[in-house]
Amino acid sequence: MSFERPYEGLKVVDLSQGLAGPYCGMLMAQQGADVIKIEPQGGDWARLIGGVYGDHTAYSIVANCGKRAMAMNLKAAPSREITDKLIAEADVFIEGYRPGVAERLGYGYEALSAVNPGLIYISVSGFGQCGPMRDRPAMDPMLQAFSGFVAENTGTDGIPHHTPVSYFDMSTGLYAQQALAGALYARKDGAPGRKIEVSLLEAAASIQAVRLLSGYRTGPRRSSTAPSGTFKTRDGHIQINIVRDREFETFCTLLALDDLWATEKYRTIAGRLEDIDFLNDYVRRVTENWTAEDLSNLLSEAGLQNEVVQTYRDLVRHPQAEAVGVFSWLQQAGANDPWPVPNIPGMPAFEPGSALAQSPTVGEHTRQILEELGYGADEIDGFYADGVVA
């Protein structure tokens, strides 16, 4: 055990698919746990969405780096014996089925805790384990709509928009992992195993807590600073936020906005907010005459908050990201060139070529895991021939 690998020696059986549950398991693997991903013989459905490279997509790489993969038909009779052996020696079990499905398959908490009383059981769902919406499918875009996020993300076109960023899947995985960390710490002092339930619904509410509380009181989002927003330039866009009154004075001086500064009411944030649409439109007519880089340099030298609107490709190659070590370039099976995978904040950077930096292909470690469970070569060959494993 070390600060870098505090979960070394722990075993995790991960039956979850998609992103939320698997991301929790991936974090455990990066901190030293032996995480065994059990997926259908056709693979986790996250291997099929977006650009596909062999057995991988962006989802499967982010969710599974550092795990060992086993492909198995859970409905085949021998699979229960195999999973029981795995669960008997596991510390953690992760599932992401709709409520009730794990129980029907024989992998509910009561059944597994009978096999292993000390097991920490993580159940990840969309809308929670109870209530009128418990059985509804719930990918990230659905929770964006349900949780108020889409309504808050109304563009200048007046239309609410969802975002392609999987905020709620990823945050669900983070919340699950922090709850798991607490349970494992308590278990060190003799606490028994337990079931932890985490849903995308709860994560969506929690990760939006500040805006949710504000919006509950005041209604739809209103800007708290002015001028502020995304402004078009000659060659792109720039984000500008002017907060303090003295910043507005500096802003007006830099851009020769003398008539704005001459208007007394605009010298206070309250006055500027009254006419925010006018101010933003006024500033847009000015920024259109600048390049984004030149304007950003001017504002930055004066200490005003701004950033050029970048693409992901811009970010990956930016000197600041390179200086901080935001990304590691990891080669994965199926792709001709490496992927810029974000390193996990607060943890060691991925080491290209290492086991922790590899996302397994479907069933890559099936035979290895079966051998560790004590199955002989002939028996394992029989499992393959009978379609029990792949």
TrEMBL record:
<dbReference type="InterPro" id="IPR050483">
    <property type="entry name" value="CoA-transferase_III_domain"/>
</dbReference>
<dbReference type="GO" id="GO:0008410">
    <property type="term" value="F:CoA-transferase activity"/>
</dbReference>
<dbReference type="InterPro" id="IPR003673">
    <property type="entry name" value="CoA-Trfase_fam_III"/>
</dbReference>
<dbReference type="InterPro" id="IPR044855">
    <property type="entry name" value="CoA-Trfase_III_dom3_sf"/>
</dbReference>
<protein>
    <submittedName>
        <fullName>CoA transferase</fullName>
    </submittedName>
</protein>
<dbReference type="InterPro" id="IPR023606">
    <property type="entry name" value="CoA-Trfase_III_dom_1_sf"/>
</dbReference>
<dbReference type="Pfam" id="PF02515">
    <property type="entry name" value="CoA_transf_3"/>
</dbReference>
<keyword id="KW-0808">Transferase</keyword>
